[in-house]
Amino acid sequence: MSAHDFSFRKIDGGALPLAAWRGKPVLVVNTASECGFTPQYAGLETLWQRYRDRGFVLLGVPSNDFGGQEPGGDAEIHDFCSKNFAVDFPLAAKEPVTGANAHPFYQWVASVGGAPRWNFHKYLVTADGTLAGAWPSRVAPDDPVLTGAIKTALKG
C-alpha cells in the first residue's frame, strides 16, 4: 500500500487522487483557519511557489479535529484561504484526520508514520508513494529540515 492508493475530494468539487501525482513528491498538511499556526498558510504557499515548477506538490487538508479550529464549510474555508493568504496550492475538502473516522490516507499514515497531533502536521510522500517523513506543527514551512527533505525528494 502507498499514498497513491488514496483519493481526497477537491474543496470545490471533484476527485483529487494522489495517484495523479505519481512521480512527484507531495507534502500533505492538515490545516485549520482558526489556529495559532494558521499563519503557516503563507509559508506553505511560498513552498508551493518555490518548488512546484520542479515537480513538488502541496496538498492542504482542512480538518476540524483539533480544538474545533476549522468550523466552516468548504466554500468558507476556500474563501478564507484565498482572501487571507492567496493560497494557490490544491486544497482538499474538509476531512477528519484522527480516530476511527479519519480519512483513509490519515489512517494509513498513522500506521506508518504516526497520527497528526495538531493542525499543520506535515507528511512528505515520495514520488513512489512512500512516506519520507513527518513533522509536527511547530516545524515551520521554511524550516531547513523540511525544505532539505523536499529538496532530497525532488532529486528522486
Keywords:
156 residues; four-stranded mixed beta sheet; alpha+beta; Glutaredoxin; two-stranded antiparallel ribbon; 4 helices
- Which overall shape is indicated by the principal axes computed on the Cα atoms? globular
> DSSP strand (E) fraction?
15-25%
Task: State mean pLDDT (0 to 100 scale).
Answer: 97
Structural class: alpha+beta
Radius of gyration: 14 Å
CATH superfamily: Glutaredoxin
Strand order of the largest sheet: 4-3-5-6
Tally of extended strands? Answer: 6
CATH second-level architecture: 3-Layer(aba) Sandwich
CATH C-level: Alpha Beta
Helix tally equals: 4
| Distance from first to last alpha carbon | 20 Å
Unreliable stretches, pLDDT < 50, 5 or more residues? Answer: none
Q: Say what the CATH topology is.
A: Glutaredoxin
List the secondary-structure elements in sequence, H or E.
EEEHEHHEEH
Structurally, the number of domains stands at 1
Main sheet attributes: strand count, strand direction, barrel closure: 4 strands, mixed
Helix content: 25-40%
Give an account of the 3D structure:
With 156 residues, the chain is α+β, with helices and mostly antiparallel strands. The protein has a single domain (3-155), classed as Glutaredoxin (3-Layer(aba) Sandwich). The protein has helices spanning 40-51, 74-85, 104-113, 144-155; strands at residues 7-9, 15-17, 26-31, 57-62, 122-125, 131-135. Strands 4-3-5-6 form a four-stranded mixed β-sheet, with helices on both faces. It has a two-stranded antiparallel ribbon with strand order 1-2. The protein is globular, with a radius of gyration of 14 Å. The two termini are 20 Å apart. The model has no long low-confidence stretch (mean pLDDT 97).
